[in-house]
Specification:
Elements: H1 3-14, E1 40-43, E2 59-63, E3 69-73, E4 78-84, H2 85-88, E5 119-120, H3 172-184, H4 198-211, H5 220-228, E6 235-239, H6 242-246, H7 257-262, H8 271-278, H9 283-289, E7 301-305, E8 317-321, E9 326-330, E10 336-341, E11 343-344, E12 354-363, E13 366-369, E14 384-386, E15 397-401, E16 407-409, E17 426-427, H10 430-437, E18 445-449
Parallel strand pairs: 5-13, 8-18, 16-17
Antiparallel strand pairs: 1-4, 2-3, 3-4, 6-7, 8-9, 9-10, 11-17, 12-15, 12-18, 13-14, 15-16
Helix pairs in contact: 3-5
Length: 450
């Protein structure tokens, strides 16, 4: 087995082994940020910089398939790989928070960072939990089922639906690595579940649009190399804290709105649900990675994916591509910042076509049900104030649009995003909606394209 094969196997397979994945713990070398071109650094297999230079005789110098110098100890373990400093110290790095935050925003009871909160004054749409044929989860609006055309911009981008290189059969760890890489790059694949699908295809194509490069999803060596410089292994270990186990949780989320209104919050129903959203995971996949774990006990160490830090920036324009079921966020220079799988409209109650604006943004919003505006939900005939929470009708975010009854919001069912339809609104996963909301200000243009 070559050095590169050993390295690849160690990074991919160790992540799912019975022992917890390694956390980057090596000390960082005292190299200056933005080192001059032409210099090199030694990078350990876990992505950390080596803070020493191994002595002669302590290592064997070899080469990997990419022609880089690799240091191997006398037991055959890779100690470090020599890489150009400019690849480890990129000139542009993402900040954790936008410039206007001097400190991290405060968090609510569920750990969601807060900018503004509030109740959505009567939203003119039908109840969100009404069933539809083929188990299609939808949002209800009072809009007639006909397409409405709004003003168009002069230049509407055309987005490719498929990646340049078709994806071959890959293992679950390899697909997980690909999904995590795309998530870290701001090209959200939706829930991370170690499975290929249209959401992954769309995020690869969006990454290629953003970078101008071609990503080979079958080249695991390349994906692992990219992961090393964007946060390390795709799967890492996490220890459940007392706060995680304490909640707050609710036993179950009722269907009837009058019963929802009686709850103190529409919180998570379990530690598993909460952690799955925190780490952008499918609940079933989180359980699959930890079949013997008791998520209710603080101190339990589990395997989770490492999606990295949220994207930051200032969004100037949003494009909601209805045919592609994807949302694109651009800055003032028309540079793509991020892309998200979305549920946008249906043939029965389509979203509009053309331009609208974001009017207001609320994180952790409540929901007002008004039977005189909404369609009848069950036997409810009174106005109901439904409390906020990640399992609320609009999830953790509501971005109201200038077209009445329309908005961009989260969802209590992230695994259905991009795979089902909505009735007019733009529905994202809670984490994607929250990320986008923190980059958006009132007045941002939203363009619906077919």
């Amino acid at each position: 087995m070559s050095v590169n094969d050993m390295w690849k196997a160690g990074l991919v397979l160790t992540a799912l082994a019975s022992e917890p994945a390694l956390l980057g713990s090596a000390a960082y070398a005292q190299a200056p940020y933005g080192a001059p071109m032409g210099e090199t650094v030694l990078v350990a297999p876990n992505g950390d910089l080596l803070d020493y230079v191994p002595e002669r005789g302590a290592v064997i110098i070899s080469r990997d398939r990419m022609g880089r110098t690799v240091l191997i100890d006398n037991f055959g373990n890779v100690v470090a790989t020599e890489v150009p400093a400019e690849t480890y110290f990129p000139q542009v790095r993402r900040n954790r928070y936008p410039v206007e935050y001097q400190d991290a925003p405060p968090t609510d009871a569920w750990g969601n960072e807060q900018v503004t909160t509030g109740t959505i004054a009567p939203v003119e749409r039908q109840p969100l939990d009404q069933s539809f044929p083929d188990d299609v989860t939808t949002e209800m609006t009072s809009i007639e089922p006909q397409s409405e055309t709004l003003p168009q911009s002069e230049a509407v981008p055309r987005h490719d639906m498929k990646p340049t290189i078709a994806v071959k059969t890959r293992s679950r760890p390899e697909i997980t690595a690909l999904q995590v890489f795309l998530d870290r790059e701001g090209m959200s694949p939706g829930v991370i579940d170690g499975k290929m699908g249209s959401n992954v295809d769309k995020s690869i194509a969006a990454w290629q649009e953003k970078t101008g490069e071609t990503l080979d999803p079958n080249n695991t060596d390349d994906i692992i190399e990219r992961l090393r410089f964007s946060g390390g292994l795709a799967i890492t270990s996490y220890t459940i804290t007392p706060g995680d186990a304490a909640g707050p949780f609710v036993a179950e989320i009722p269907e009837d709105y009058s019963q929802k209104a009686l709850l103190p919050s529409l919180a998570y129903t379990s530690t598993i649900e909460m952690l799955a959203e925190r780490f952008h995971m499918d609940e079933a996949y989180l359980k699959e990675l930890n079949p013997e774990a008791d998520f209710t006990i603080p101190g339990t160490t589990i395997k989770v994916v490492n999606p990295g830090e949220p994207m930051t920036g200032k969004v100037a324009r949003i494009v909601a591509d209805k045919g592609r079921k994807q949302v694109f966020a651009y800055d003032e220079f028309n540079t793509l910042i991020s892309a998200y799988p979305a549920s946008i409209g249906s043939s029965d109650t389509p979203s509009p076509s053309g331009l609208v604006n974001v009017e207001r943004v609320a994180l952790n919003p409540g929901y007002t049900y008004n039977p005189k505006i909404n369609f009848q939900q069950g036997a409810n005939d009174k106005v109901l104030n439904i409390p906020p929470g990640p399992n609320g009708p609009v999830g953790t975010v509501w971005m109201a649009l200038s077209k009445p009854t329309y908005g961009i919001h989260g969802t209590p069912e992230p695994s259905k995003i991009g795979r089902t339809q909505s009735h007019g609104c733009i529905r994202l996963t809670n984490w994607d909606a929250t990320e986008l909301a923190k980059m958006v200000q009132p007045g941002v243009t939203v363009e619906f394209v077919d």
